[in-house]
Amino acid sequence: MYKIMVAIAIFINAGTTANAQSQAEKKVIEAIESLRIAMINADKNALENLVADKLSYGHSGGAVDDKKNFVEKIVSGQSDFVTIDLSEQTISISGKTAIVRHILKAKTNDGGKPGEVNLRVLLVWQKQNGKWKLLARQAVRIA
Q1: Domains present along the chain, CATH in parentheses
Q2: Taking phi first (over 0 means left), then psi (-120 to 50 degrees means alpha), and beta for anything else, what does residue 130 get?
Q3: pLDDT tens for residues 79-104?
């Protein structure tokens, strides 16, 4: 009887942990999608609410922006995303940190010049005051 009770307790705990993980993943996915839309729409308020004050945003060309520069470049059109498509996304959550990897393909119009990017991206999201905020991003070009 004791073994059955232990097995049931382990099964219930595993189900609760898996459900909590999937709920956290759903919230991270929502934050990623909100960021994608805010970048396409150049929505200053949404961008400022989605990224951490200590953002470190690494571009594939080597430049690194803080929160102010990241938002300013998107809103001004210096970095203009016409479309953003994400694929092959993986999410790993550890406590209040989520590590996200995906492939980003986008059509751009940076400073009025049409272009396309094909990147592998690493995102680090941190849960702050109950909300997932982008803390760090690094992109590398796919050859």
Answers
A1: 2-141 (3.10.450.50)
A2: left
A3: 999 999 999 999 999 999 999 999 99
